[in-house]
Amino acid sequence: MTKKHAVLSASSSNRWLHCPPSVRLSESFENKSSEFAKQGTDAHELCEFKLHQLLGDAGIDPTPNLAYYDEEMEVCATAYATYVMEELNKAKQVSKDPIVIVEQQLDFSRFVPEGFGTGDCLIIADETLSVIDYKHGLGVLVDAYENPQMMCYALGALELFDGIYDISQVKMTIFQPRRENVSTYTIQKEELMQWGNDVLTPAAKLAFNGEGEFQCGKWCGFCPAKYSCKARAEYNLELVKKEFREANLLSDDEIEEVLVKVDNLVSWANDIKEYALKQALNGKIWADFKLVEGRATRKYSNDNDVAAAVIKAGFNPYDKKLLGVTAMTKELGKSKFEEILGDYIIKPKGKLTLVPMSDKRKAVEIQTAADEFKNMEDK
């Protein structure tokens, strides 16, 4: 059975909150499900089964019918179910009868026209309502802090359970095991309701009616109209058209002005190239561009035949190499990996990168050669 999708879905709320008219603009574009989305759907189905197992509920193992099932998905789903049970045990310490609800349909249409969605897991207890969302994605790190999708789900959960339990706050958690990310944000119920009334509802009404102003940002990357959106093109071309002051070198202020927009500009340019290529592959003839074959890399026609031929000739076709951390974890299993190699694992510092001040990570202080020399003088 095909699932019904809301016009103003919780999953796309970050986009339509920032850019309300994008919703109606996108309706003429086919929003195909990607391979990553299909993999995520399989992972959610397995997570649901694993959690029901730990809760003592009967269920049918879905793994034979999961197209993207693998050992990593098994580990991730088990970790998710275990985490939920740990949170349930915490809830039992402050509430005598908390309940867990899996894959709950949530209606937040009081705030968003026709608004509904499905919460992966709810733990309902006195004082705290917990909303837990599983993310199988590896590409984008998802933060729970003021996450509008989670806040929409939380509003829907309050609609169902606020009168049954004495709830004073909502705890929202993103569980993203492939990024080793467990992000939690807690908000008071009154503050969440105020956000729903003052921020969510006005933007939702504009979006539903196709009104409001276009606004470009990171959310454009998930918009079905991102390839052809004129507002996005104009926004990014502003940087290209900009006339910098007459000088041979850019000033620091001008460089920062470029840095603010350059990521969106690069993303937009790549989207345009991807769109143009797809159109060409579907038969479109561009006036000044043509399809050609790219650079090809030599490859073996059959690995087994190549290995047999090399061995027959008296040579060794294989190169022994220590398995990497991910591959070794898969080979040994997570618990065995920790038991055998836990003391040998280190986590080097990540490569330094330049990000906006709004980024939540702590700034790294760089000590220059001049600073080191000054420190030596002070000693």
From TrEMBL:
It holds the Pfam family DUF2800. InterPro entries: DUF2800. This is DUF2800 domain-containing protein. It comes from Lactococcus lactis subsp. lactis A12. The lineage of its organism: Bacteria, Bacillati, Bacillota, Bacilli, Lactobacillales.
